[in-house]
């Protein structure tokens, strides 16, 4: 049994060391995390622009609080798109990236 446990233990230790070595790639406390949404071409682009701030929807990492983001509907096409979301005819796919994109 010890012959089986030692390789497994070494593998777990290697995994923990590898995860710790990569931990500096994560978000820092208070760092801005921008919401990304799928574009019409199928790539990830910026999320909605909030009317109040003029910035894209974002959250501060590790900070608790409320946020509001009014999305202006300025054209009939935007209204139609929003109505199709509310009636579940279409989906709006957005995400919060797990790790920030940094230069390596």
Task: Explain the overall architecture.
- With 104 residues, the protein is of the alpha+beta class.
- The strands form two sheets. It has a three-stranded antiparallel β-sheet with strand order 3-2-5, with no helix packed on it.
- The protein has two helices and five strands; from the N terminus they run αββββαβ.
- The longest helix has 20 residues, at 2-21.
Brief summary of the model shown:
30% of the residues lie in helices and 13% in strands. The protein has 104 residues and is of the alpha+beta class.
Distance between the termini: 42 Å
Low-confidence stretches: 1-22
User: DSSP strand (E) fraction?
Assistant: 5-15%
Compute the CA-based radius of gyration: 21 Å
Largest sheet: 3 strands, antiparallel
Helix content: 25-40%
Count of separate DSSP helical elements: 2
Order of helices and strands: HEEEEHE
Class by alpha and beta content: alpha+beta
Shape: globular
Number of strands: 5
Task: Give me the side-by-side strand order of the main sheet.
Answer: 3-2-5
Task: Give the SSE map.
Blueprint: H1 2-21, E1 32-34, E2 36-38, E3 44-46, E4 58-60, H2 76-86, E5 94-95
Tag the structure with descriptive keywords.
104 residues; alpha+beta
């Amino acid at each position: 049994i010890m012959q089986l446990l030692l390789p497994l233990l070494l593998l777990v230790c290697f995994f923990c060391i590898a995860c710790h070595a990569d931990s500096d790639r994560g978000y820092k406390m208070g760092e801005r995390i921008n919401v990304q949404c799928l574009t019409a071409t199928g790539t990830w682009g910026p999320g909605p622009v909030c009317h109040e701030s003029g910035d894209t929807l974002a959250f501060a990492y590790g900070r608790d609080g409320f946020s509001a983001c009014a999305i202006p509907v300025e054209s009939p096409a935007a209204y139609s798109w929003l109505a199709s979301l509310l009636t579940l005819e279409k989906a709006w796919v957005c995400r919060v990236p797990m790790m920030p994109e940094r230069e390596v």
